[in-house]
Design brief:
Blueprint (H helix, E strand, L loop, with lengths): L1 H12 L1 H39 L3 E4 L18 E2 H8 L4 E7 L1 E2 L3 E3 L14 E5 L8 E6 L7 E5 H7 L6 E6 L2 E13 L7 E5 L1 H9 L4 E2 L1 E6 L5 H12 L5 E4 H48 L1 H9 L4 H41 L13 H26 L17 H25 L4 H38 L4 H13 L1 H39 L4 E5 L7 H8 L4 E15 L5 E9 L3 H4 L4 E4 L9 E5 H7 L6 E6 L4 E10 L11 E3 H7 L8 E8 L4 H11 L6 E5 H44 L1 H9 L4 H39 L10 H18 L1 H8 L3 H6 L2
Parallel strand pairs: 6-11, 8-10, 17-22, 19-21
Antiparallel strand pairs: 1-13, 1-14, 2-12, 3-13, 4-6, 5-9, 7-10, 8-11, 9-10, 15-23, 15-24, 16-17, 16-20, 16-23, 18-21, 20-21
Length: 858
């Protein structure tokens, strides 16, 4: 009890010094809990949506065994009208209704602007059914009654400022549906952000499926006293097992949840990974805090030992203080996490994904995980300082307070750090020499971990040399004040190393990702210059195929010399060695050879566009012993079988169309029925010589009615690549900012505690003539050099990681290493500003000290 009282008294006496460490715990726990609450809420929202929209029993097309064997016709898979009639004969079926739905549509308003979500949520076109009335309520107008009517959901109408009578054009694979808004329906459950339009059943069948005797699914409602499982069994017997996919309400909801669950898991674990980085950085802050507090209380601990306190009691006293810090920070962090989750939901709402706070889900495991994590991390971080406190001798009561020199322990730590760093360097080198990316990634991971730990351990040893070098440039110009700042930074290399290590981790990740991102863009740009001969590329950003109507408009554009398309044809291909696999064949036209330059290792690519001919990639040819002149058996999905002669083998030394098997588009047309002929994935065009600008403007104007497709020249394409990588990196940098904020708090805390530790020294310097301004400058310069030291270690380490990672990317065709020196330089300079800002509060406090009181401090 005496130890507990003493610990509580010490904790409250030093609560100001503990505050920043508590903030690190709060931020880390809040990020973990906020992530869990946010993803759990998204899961709950989707679960309720799927449960409310699923029928008692759903009959849907049988899922294909391999997606590669399917044709992309732009029309969803369907079941014939006979399935509807058959389901009606099932015992226990109260009602049966056909459903028509497609996500492969784009809806535009009268100004040709896409009204769909900007967050990646789908745009859905469907028929208005009885089942929809359970989740939607018509709040304005009426349901669609004919081909000229369309109904839209209220959320989309509000966001896009749509009203009754406005004209909408729905772009489908079979053509465009032009209709006026006859009604607006409001969701009775939370809508995660999808844009939905409804048509009458006949219009939906004709325009979405291309047939009036088919549906995308059949909804069966159970009669009184009939369970869903019984109804499923009866419907299966009526229609035949294996003919279709049969799901109960729960099974359908679980299937939908599984599809969205993979995305939510990736999101959750990615966010938790960044929270883990912040926790790791927070450990350095907590270790530094307790190390300095123990050092400052050396005499006090010595007196406690002198009057009878055991080592265990002293150790326990420090650990109890850590426990109090962990509990307080974790409790606040859990509450802050809920607030963070609500903030993320509001942000997603602003972006178009509606998540209602009424669905906020706080599972009991979330606060428990936050509390356990925060407390455990704090106790682990305080363990070494607590052990150090327990080893304080009673004789320390006769000495001045201060951190003892490292002595032999410092030498051992330096040797261990160098060994770890050398081992990590060997791992990184092994990664660069790997022949397979899978093997190299293991070495890369080992190298990253070992070099990181090695730099953390060897940091104090490096501090002596690197701080002196940095001081020559940054501190020496400030004269005696700069030299004082340098000596303060060098006074305790272990503390300087630990403080810089927290900043080093975040900046190492920033630098490595910058190198990887820049190398990816440079590699793709080089490949584009080398391989792509087309002037313009027309394609969608979300993977939607180019409809026949849009392709027709592109071909009619003026000033174009050639226009060619790229279609993916599903088939099962049997090689001469007897192996069979589902493949996607690239159905193109001879002009494609100029639009995309491909080298051959054998044969002539032009011959592959002959009748019943094809090409294969070099890797496929080597694996299956295929040579020019061999014949492959090709079973076109939904079509006939063919024997195609291999006329060329293309080189796989490219990242564009690597491994593609080319056939003439007429070959695909010959063996596929019209309803199975695929749409194009992209359109490539070449301008008449000297008319590139006019052709570009004409093509963009021609494609304006189809806003889901982007028209890009090569400069646009390169810019898009840079933007996509830049957006990804900015998101990652934003998440890493949490770790960097915690690291900055560590610098602030170290300086604040250092000021307290040097109170008497500061008083003496002031007494002999050091002005307040000079004192504040000294502390700011000390902070700057520590921040630059951490930045130097982090950026150097990160560039090594990035260079090693690029070598693995080179195995996948991304062979250009590019160091973003501008970004690296900006981060290094920014680190100096970070150090300057971190020192403001401690410097201000030091400047306000009373000189006489400071000198009198023991």
């Amino acid at each position: 009890m005496t130890v507990l009282k003493a610990s509580l008294r010490n904790f409250l006496a030093h609560k100001g010094r503990m505050a920043l460490s508590a903030v690190a715990v709060v931020l880390s726990v809040a990020f973990v809990c906020g992530t869990l609450v946010f993803t759990d809420t998204m899961t709950t929202t989707f679960d309720k949506l799927f449960a409310s929209t699923s029928a008692d029993v759903t009959v849907s097309p049988k899922k294909p065994k391999d997606d590669k064997a399917q044709q992309e016709t732009g029309r969803p898979p369907s079941v014939p009208e006979s399935a509807l009639a058959g389901a009606r004969t099932a015992e226990g079926a109260k009602s049966v209704e056909g459903m028509v739905s497609s996500e492969k549509v784009t809806v535009v308003d009268g100004d040709d602007k896409n009204i769909g979500s900007t967050t990646g949520a789908p745009t859905i076109a469907s028929n208005w059914t009885t089942g929809d009335r359970t989740t939607m309520k018509i709040t304005s107008g009426h349901a669609p009654r004919g081909a000229s009517d369309v109904m839209v959901d209220a959320d989309t109408a509000k966001k896009r400022k749509l009203k009754l009578g406005d004209e909408l054009r729905t772009i489908t694979a079979t053509g465009d549906i032009e209709a006026r808004i006859s009604g607006i329906a409001t969701f009775q459950v939370t809508n995660p952000g999808a844009a939905i339009v409804y048509f009458d059943t006949r219009t939906a069948q004709r325009e979405l499926l291309g047939a009036t005797d088919a549906y995308t699914g059949v909804a069966v409602t159970a009669g009184s006293g009939v369970t869903h499982a019984e109804l499923k069994k009866n419907v299966t017997e009526a229609l035949g097992a294996g003919t279709y996919t049969y799901q109960t309400k729960k099974e359908a909801a679980d299937s939908s949840r599984e599809q969205i669950g993979s995305f939510l898991d990736v999101l959750k674990y990615a966010l938790l990974g960044f929270a883990g980085i912040a926790l790791l950085v927070g450990i350095f802050l907590i270790v530094n805090t307790f190390s300095m507090l123990v050092a400052q209380r050396t005499r006090e601990i010595g007196l406690m030992r002198a009057i009878g306190s055991s080592r265990r009691q002293v150790n326990r006293s420090v650990m109890i203080e850590a426990l109090l810090l962990g509990v307080a920070g974790s409790v606040v962090g859990v509450g802050a996490g809920v607030g963070l989750a609500i903030g993320l939901m509001e942000l997603m709402g602003a972006l178009g994904m509606n998540l209602s706070t009424s669905e906020l889900t706080l599972a009991w495991t979330t606060p428990v995980a936050g509390l356990v994590l925060g407390i455990l991390v704090t106790l682990l971080a305080a363990y070494l300082p607590a052990r150090r406190a327990g080893r304080v001798s009673p004789m320390a009561a006769l000495r001045d307070a201060g951190t003892p020199a490292d002595g032999k322990a410092g030498t051992v730590r330096g040797v261990l750090g160098l060994l770890l760093t050398a081992g990590g360097g060997a791992g990184l080198y092994a990664a660069t020499q790997a022949e397979k990316a899978s093997d190299g990634s293991v070495w890369l991971a080992a190298g990253v971990v070992l070099t990181l730990v090695g730099f953390v351990v060897v940091g104090p040893l490096l501090a002596g040399g690197l701080v002196r070098v940095l001081s020559v440039v940054t501190l020496r110009p400030f004269g005696r004040v700069g030299r004082l700042a340098e000596r303060n930074a060098l006074r305790n290399p272990r503390r300087t190393g630990a403080t810089a290590a927290a900043l080093m981790i975040g900046l190492a990740l920033v630098a490595s990702l910058s190198v990887v991102g820049s190398s990816m863009v440079a590699s793709a740009t080089e490949e584009l210059d080398r391989s792509v001969g087309a002037d313009f590329i027309v394609q969608s950003n979300n993977g939607q195929p180019v409809t026949a109507a849009a392709e027709k408009r592109a071909r009619k554009s003026e000033r174009l010399k050639t226009v060619t398309t790229y279609k993916m044809v599903g088939a099962r291909v049997t090689a001469p060695d007897g192996s069979t696999a589902a493949e996607h064949l690239a159905a193109t036209e001879p002009a494609y050879m100029d639009a995309l330059r491909r080298e051959t290792t054998s044969g002539d690519l032009a011959a592959a566009y002959g009748k019943d001919s094809m090409s294969v990639g070099a890797e496929y040819a080597n694996k299956h012993g295929v040579e020019v002149g061999d014949t492959l058996e090709v079973a076109f999905s939904g079509g006939r079988e063919a024997e195609l002669k291999v006329a060329a083998i293309t080189s796989d030394d490219t990242n564009v169309d690597k491994g593609a098997k080319y056939i003439h588009v007429d070959t695909a047309r010959r063996y596929l029925p019209a309803d199975q002929f695929p749409l194009s994935w992209m359109v490539l065009a070449t301008a008449d010589e000297g008319h590139e600008k006019a052709a570009y403007a004409a093509l963009k104007k021609q494609m304006k009615p189809y806003p889901q497709y982007q028209v890009r020249d090569q400069a646009d394409y390169k810019e898009t690549l840079q933007e996509q990588v830049g957006q990804m990196l900015n998101m990652v940098y934003g998440l890493l900012a949490l770790a960097i904020i915690v690291a900055v708090l560590g610098v602030v805390n170290t300086l604040a505690l250092s000021v307290v530790e040097r109170t008497r020294e500061i008083g003496l310097m002031r007494a002999i003539g050091l002005s307040r301004r000079q004192l504040r400058r000294m502390i700011r310069l000390e902070s700057v050099v520590i921040a630059l030291f951490g930045a130097l270690l982090g950026l150097g380490l990160g560039m090594c990681w990035g260079a090693a990672a690029q070598k693995l990317l080179a195995l996948e065709g991304l062979g250009v290493l590019e160091i973003p020196w501008q970004t690296i330089g900006a981060v290094f300079v920014g680190s100096a500003l970070v150090g300057l800002v971190a020192a403001l509060a401690p410097a201000f406090r030091a400047g306000r000290m009373n000189v006489l009181n400071a000198i009198a401090t023991e």
